[in-house]
């Protein structure tokens, strides 16, 4: 069959979970912007497909849940091998350490073309930027090195991850591509008027200054530091701090602890933690500032979405935050686990709205110029095509 009439190749993406924040949006955006006449897609999800199940199926993507249990679970691996044999994909693309075992499953299923992407969370623990139990950081590194011969090509979402794959995992430089994430600047755009009426009764008011954060609420995302900073601000005597509201969008094991901290301080009515939401873009437009307190960050999807929305950013000086935030121009970088420094940065934006407007406008211009979804999709397409040609 001539190449012009060849059927689209099938890519099977293997992920640990698809929850609120960067991972789900990033995969959905990639699939939506890849040429359908060249590639079609399926997703194998180890644990939770979350709210993205319906969105993926709208794009004609088959979603297969592997129902992985906590702890040792051989059953999900056997189900993955069987699913890959049934799908017969042309290429398997695994993501992060949670999906890495898909490289072995793909090899056992006879899939010749294999890509692995590193987008952040587990990478942070292994490189010392996020907490890990003794011994836990070493095991993933050993497994990564053991499976390295199976990986045809690596994709790193940041320059830091690219260096780490080469220097620590031992990947050949010619087999690693740095592809920055992209964002839909039409979906994520600045608000055009006053705050939308979001949240429960009494949460939003006309003069509110809304501090926002989005993502999975786990220990690496470190939302408790943001809550501590917020509580310091509202307990200070500065008059403008009565305007402050806190919105943390996402779910995870730290959500209950954050809510309890707010309730104990008598600040529950000034905060809204709605869990996972399908309307992240609209909720970002109700924010005045994005704060990202993570101990490690490799993908930067939420950061780019906030920048596209025209929000100034206060982010910890870790990982891809250091590559994307221009201090004093698009945001402020603060040390991790430093609620006092974070509170001071937030207070500056609350006190000087003109600075927030300038930084937000520059942030959006940066995203439009350097982080478009079509450019990201073209980079992935080049990797897939090169592997297929080999």
TrEMBL record:
Q: Which domain of life is it from?
A: Bacteria
Presence of the UniProt keyword Ribosomal protein in the record: no
Could you tell me one molecular function GO term of this UniProt entry? glycosyltransferase activity
Matches recorded under Gene3D superfamilies: Glycogen Phosphorylase B
Can you name this protein?
A: Glycosyltransferase
**Species of provenance:** Massilia litorea
Glycosyltransferase subfamily 4-like N-terminal domain location is 21-184
Print the keywords alphabetically.
Answer: Transferase
* Pfam families named among the record's database cross-references: Glyco_trans_1_4 (PF13692), Glyco_transf_4 (PF13439)
């Amino acid at each position: 069959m001539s190449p012009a009439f060849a059927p689209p190749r099938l890519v099977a993406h293997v992920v640990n979970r698809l929850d609120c924040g960067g991972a789900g949006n990033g995969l959905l955006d990639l699939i939506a912007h890849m040429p359908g006449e060249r590639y079609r897609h399926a997703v194998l999800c180890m644990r939770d497909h979350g709210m993205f199940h319906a969105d993926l199926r709208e794009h004609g993507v088959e979603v297969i849940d592997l129902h992985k249990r906590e702890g040792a679970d051989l059953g999900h691996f056997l189900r993955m091998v069987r699913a890959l044999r049934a799908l017969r994909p042309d290429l398997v693309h695994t993501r992060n350490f949670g999906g890495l075992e898909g490289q072995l499953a793909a090899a056992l299923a006879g899939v010749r073309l294999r890509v692995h992407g590193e987008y952040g969370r587990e990478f942070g623990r292994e490189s010392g930027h996020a907490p890990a139990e003794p011994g836990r950081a070493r095991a993933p590194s050993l497994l990564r090195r053991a499976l390295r011969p199976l990986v045809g090509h690596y994709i790193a979402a940041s320059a830091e991850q690219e260096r780490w794959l080469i220097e620590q995992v031992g990947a050949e430089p010619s087999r690693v591509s740095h592809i920055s994430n992209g964002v839909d600047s039409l979906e994520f755009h600045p608000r055009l008027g006053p705050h939308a009426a979001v949240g429960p009764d009494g949460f939003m008011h006309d003069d509110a200054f809304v501090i926002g954060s989005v993502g999975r609420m786990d220990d690496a995302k470190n939302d408790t530091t943001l809550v501590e900073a917020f509580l310091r601000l509202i307990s200070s005597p500065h008059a403008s701090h009565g305007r402050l509201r806190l919105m943390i969008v996402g779910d995870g094991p730290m959500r209950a602890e954050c809510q309890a901290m707010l309730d104990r301080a008598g600040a529950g009515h000034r905060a809204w933690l709605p869990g996972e939401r399908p309307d992240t873009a609209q909720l970002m437009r109700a924010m005045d500032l994005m704060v990202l307190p993570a101990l490690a960050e490799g993908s930067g999807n939420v950061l780019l979405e906030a920048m596209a929305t025209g929000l100034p950013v206060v982010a910890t000086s870790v990982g891809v935050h250091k590559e994307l935030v221009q201090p004093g121009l698009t945001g402020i970088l603060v040390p991790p686990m430093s609620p006092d420094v974070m509170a001071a940065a937030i207070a500056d934006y609350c006190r000087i709205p003109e600075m927030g407007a300038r930084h937000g406008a520059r942030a959006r211009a940066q995203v439009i110029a350097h982080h478009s979804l079509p450019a990201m999709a073209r980079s992935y397409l080049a990797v897939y095509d090169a592997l297929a040609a080999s």
